[in-house]
Amino acid sequence: FAGPHSFTGEDCSELHVHGGPAVVGGVLQALGRLPGLRPADPGEFTKRAFQAGKLGLTEVEGLGDLIHAETEAQRRQALRQMEGELGQLYQRWSEELTKALAHVEAFIDFSEDDNLEEGVLARVAAAVQTLEEEVRGHLQDGRRGERLRGGVHVVIAGPTNAGKSSLLNLLCQRPAAIVSPVAGTTRDVVESALNIGGYPVVLSDTAGLRETQDAVEREGVSRARDRLQRADVVLAVLAAVDVAPEPGCLADALRAVLPPGALAGRAPCILVLNKADLLEEGRGGALLGACGEGALSPVCLLSCKTGEGVASLLSLLGAQLEQMCGDPLTGSPSLTQARHRLHLTSCLGSLGRYHGYKSLDLVLAAEELRLARRHLGKITGRVSAEEILDIVFRDFCVGK
Ligand SMILES: Nc1nc2c(ncn2[C@@H]2O[C@H](COP(=O)(O)OP(=O)(O)OP(=O)(O)O)[C@@H](O)[C@H]2O)c(=O)[nH]1
Ligand SMILES: [Mg+2]
To answer: What's the pTM value of the predicted model, to 2 decimals?
Structure first.
């Protein structure tokens, strides 16, 4: 593949050989004997493509995510990022900032010569404000892209013996956690990665929530509370036989499971009434009817023993995941990494300070635009001073 049209931009050649390990080993050995040849470092081809300007940093990250994608929705999101849509969005913002900065710098340098059109600074202020709104909107996406990339954290919580570990084992289809009739069996958090409807989920089983004198179990309960604080979705599990079928029972039951403050992040919750097989005939309907009234959370009656009702829990959970992660192919591309969030937040901070400085000291204000642009550049991997000069000379006929 002749450069510059190859993946790395350099001249490349590719050998197609039979796939057996001995054949590949023999070819690599023969190549190793040629002077100047060495094995590539991990990621070296992508790094060379980046250095040759073939890929931006966000595209490189998309490529990495694509290689590691485990579910369909993750694959689609990574592919979209790799194809450059996210990079283009940040690039457009960066160009708008560059333009605003060029205008401010031109104003600082040349306004006294009366060479500039009227209202330059007002136009810059308006452009900065529009940009601020766009960046803020992009940041307030409910972390859907990051959730899809890293997995949605679903936490199973509830009193001891409700069947939490049984539910984990049933959903991940393997005996990941110990199940026993002894209350307080689970102490550590047991995690399992799942694919539910194409969405990645990290499902955690936790210790039953109760007051206890046992030091080890107390640590388990404290870990369970900690997980609850960081949960994206909570499956609150109760034994159906322990819930009285009366109006308001759902709120009472939830309060018993999730003590005040347990859900600081207000993660959506699905109430799971387990052990439906132990209910007397007709009591399940009465229970659901009573729970359904003024329900704050969806309720699901199931039995881990018979498997009845599990499909409806999965469909409730699937709908919740879809709402949280969205369809990665529609709408504007999602923010996928904490790194991007960090730089975008810093960028927004600088844009805010621009407004504060602009009527006090234009030089300081311009510096904030430069910082904002540098934060965007850190995301895309493109930062250049030349661009500003180009715009100064393209937009203004100064220095004639
Ligand atoms: N009849 C019936 N028994 C169940 C069901 N689900 C779980 N159990 C039983 O209930 C007991 C407790 O189950 P676990 O899954 O260990 O309960 P847990 O909530 O994880 O309990 P801790 O870890 O102690 O907090 C076990 O004996 C299970 O076999 C069910 O749907 N029906
Ligand atoms: Mg358990």
So the answer is: 0.77
